[in-house]
Amino acid sequence: MREPLQDAARGALVLAVVLTGACGSGGAAKDASFDRTAIQQTGAAGQGDAAVDRSTGLGGATGPARDAGAGGAAGAAIVPDRVLPDAAAPVGGMALDTFDKDVDFGFEPYHDTAQMNLADPAVIDAGTAPLLAFDPEDGSPSPGSMKVTVPYSGANQYVEVQSYVFVVPQDWSGHTLHARLKIDAGSTFHGYALLYVNTGVSYIAGSTAINLASGGDWQEIAMDVDHPMTVASTTRYSAKQVVLYGLQLNTGTAGAGATPVTFHVDSFSLE
Predict the structure, then answer these.
(1) How far is C-alpha 55 from the geometric centre of its chain's CA atoms?
(2) How far is residue 109 from each of residues 134, 186, 233, measured CA to CA in Å?
(3) Pairing state between β 157-162 and 116-117
(4) Cα separations (Å) of 218 from 31, 79, 81, 182, 209?
(5) How many domains does the chain have?
(6) What CATH code is carried by the domain that includes residue 242?
(7) CA angle 268, 116, 202 (to 5 degrees)
(8) Domain-located, residue 1
(9) Residue 269 pLDDT > 60
(10) Displacement of CA 121 from its chain's centroid (Å)
(11) What is the C-alpha separation between 16 and 23, in angstroms, rounded?
(12) Residue 115 in this model has a pLDDT that exceeds 80
């Protein structure tokens, strides 16, 4: 099971997101002492459960992974797309990160042997790196968003953008995690998005796959944190112990002719 930042030195992580604060990006407060680049480059073993099951990664080698865990029966249908009729409509519940002033997410650099993580340093060394930037002009519901440019070239390729780690694990039971995104005009993408959280000291992942609509409209996707489509371990996943959240953008098995895509991502919220 791919766990975000699993290749990093978990013991060196400063848990750096507090839901009760406010940050420059309009979301949760961040600890400026957390050095994401340093963490990504360590390559050291993680703490806690070293035997994390990676056999059913967030995306799976053949598209959105499904099992008979908390998300329901195996082979459950992907949640349909949700195009927003009004991109300026306010988010429901509590805003987690709205990227109003900056971007405080990072790419997950995991070395995936089943699919191709385009943010893997080994992949970047052989080609073009994905880019993550702040766009002060575009956003939903207000200006300011995370711009993600991904150099896709084939099937089963992805990037993951994710938050920092919470100072204290959060109880998100009974809640739904939302995010807004769009495929920029001029880009073509027929893949899917995976909204995910990691939970507990072993960073056990739960994720839900969502087909994205074509076109340049803002879309809102969501995951029931209690019942994600896929979980790494049905006995150890806990919506009461969320430690980070993020989004994977994957070309899937039908992406043989994939080309570079620019996305805008905004307004993670908890309802």
Answers:
(1) 19
(2) 20, 27, 22
(3) parallel
(4) 30, 16, 11, 5, 17
(5) 1
(6) 2.60.120.260
(7) 55
(8) no
(9) yes
(10) 18
(11) 11
(12) yes
- In angstroms, the CA 95 to CA 20 distance is 10
> What's the mean pLDDT in 61-74?
33
pTM for the structure as a whole: 0.76
Sign of the alpha-carbon dihedral angle for 241, 236, 108, 149 = negative
Residue 88 forms part of a structural domain: yes
pLDDT at 80: 57
Q: State the CB neighbour count (10 A cutoff) for residue 69.
A: 20
For residue 177, the one-letter residue type is L
Q: Look at residue 55 in the predicted model and tell me its pLDDT.
A: 29
Q: 10 Å Cβ neighbour count for 187?
A: 17
For residue 237, being part of any structural domain is answered with yes
C-alpha–C-alpha distance, residues 93 and 128, integer Å: 38
Other CB atoms within a 10 A radius of the CB of residue 194 amount to 28
Give the DSSP per-residue string, 96-165.
Answer: EE--SS----EE-----SSSEETTSHHHHHTSPPPEEEEESS--SSSS-EEEEEE---SSSEEEEEE---
Q: How far apart are the first and last CA of the chain?
A: 27
Question: Alpha-carbon distance 41 to 65, whole Å?
Answer: 28
In whole angstroms, what is the distance from residue 150 CA to residue 212 CA? 16
